[in-house]
């Protein structure tokens, strides 16, 4: 074996959640991913824009409580971006994804709550950089009536956690 050969051992999963206007959308998508997809991230990054930064402590606490209910406690980090800055969002999230992959994590991103400019900036930048996102999650709702409540209180027939990578045939 060559001395310059090394292998990064998988550290587990990392989860990036894009927070926009709805804390319920982010928290419920996270709960759905744990329950329906079996993901158990070792690290969770909440990425939001400045106008929504005040919501991050509530979201972080909800993620901690839900995670503990599934028997684990992830490290939770927060990244605040300038409002509606497509380019900066792309740079920041591309860098975050690259760093997590370099650390040996499989990276999932949840776009459910993210505002369009942040979602587009993130996905375009990650794609152009050729980074290996394992999952792109989205909690699809058939209606938005009466859904500002915990995941388990919303009828399952009106919501479905989607993995865009899986749906596109990129991942099994």
UniProtKB/TrEMBL annotation:
Highest taxon listed in the record's lineage: Archaea
Name of this protein: Uncharacterized protein
């Amino acid at each position: 074996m060559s001395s310059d050969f090394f292998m990064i051992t998988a550290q587990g999963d990392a989860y990036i959640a894009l927070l926009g206007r709805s804390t319920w959308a982010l928290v419920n998508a996270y709960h759905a991913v744990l329950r329906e997809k079996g993901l158990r991230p070792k690290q969770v990054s909440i990425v939001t824009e400045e106008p929504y930064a005040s919501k991050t402590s509530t979201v972080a606490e909800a993620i901690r409580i839900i995670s503990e209910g599934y028997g684990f406690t992830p490290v939770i980090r927060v990244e605040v971006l300038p409002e509606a800055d497509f380019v900066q969002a792309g740079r920041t999230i591309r860098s975050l994804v690259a760093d997590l992959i370099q650390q040996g994590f499989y990276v999932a991103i949840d776009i459910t709550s993210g505002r369009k400019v942040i979602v587009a900036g993130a996905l375009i930048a990650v794609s152009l950089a050729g980074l290996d996102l394992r999952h792109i999650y989205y909690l699809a709702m058939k209606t938005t009536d009466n859904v500002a409540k915990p995941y388990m209180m919303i009828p399952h027939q009106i919501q479905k956690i989607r993995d865009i990578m899986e749906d596109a045939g990129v991942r099994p």
